Amino acid sequence: MHRRITYTKSVTDVFTTAATAYAMGRGVCQDYAHVMLAMTRACGLTARYVSGHLLGEGATHAWVEVLVPRHDDAAIVLSFDPTHDMHTTIRHVVVAVGRDYADVAPVSGSFDAPYGGQLRSRHRVDVVDLIESAA
After folding, report:
1. pTM score of the predicted model
2. How confident is the model at residue 46 (pLDDT cuts 50, 70, 90)?
3. Separation CA 82–CA 50 (nearest Å)
4. Do residues 51 and 104 lie in contact, with contact meaning Cβ atoms separated by under 8 Å?
5. Closest to 96 (Cα-Cα) out of 51, 66, 53, 65
6. What span, in angstroms and rounded, lies between the C-alpha atoms of 32 and 62?
7. Are strands 26-27 and 6-7 parallel, antiparallel or unpaired?
8. Cα 49 from Cα 41, distance rounded (Å)
9. Under 8 Å CB-to-CB from 62, ≥6 apart: which residues?
10. Torsion angle (degrees, nearest 10) of CA 21, 11, 101, 95
11. How far is Cα 102 from Cα 45, in angstroms, rounded to an integer?
């Protein structure tokens, strides 16, 4: 899928379906995530959309978490960034999760009200401390 879609800004919006983005072969991170969600769910796997930040990119980002069953009746969650064709790292900061983009509220951007007025929001994300778990 990563090779099938070319990262291209301003060709899709929040209403673009996974099928449309895949057919166009272009889109942004939310399109990559929606296409991956459609593919994993078509394979019978449970998956969710993750919205957050990829530190160093300066904008919101989207990726996917997939619940993968194991042979011992347990399951593991794999977190994958289809835009960058990689497993997520500590640089992927989760802000919200849901079934798809519609479930997660935007965390930055601007909104022009239909009858005047404007709302702007800006956020900065940094890792300030890393705590090792005692496992």
Report:
1. 0.77
2. very high
3. 12
4. yes
5. 51
6. 8
7. parallel
8. 12
9. 29, 30, 32, 33, 49, 50, 51, 52, 83, 101
10. 120
11. 20
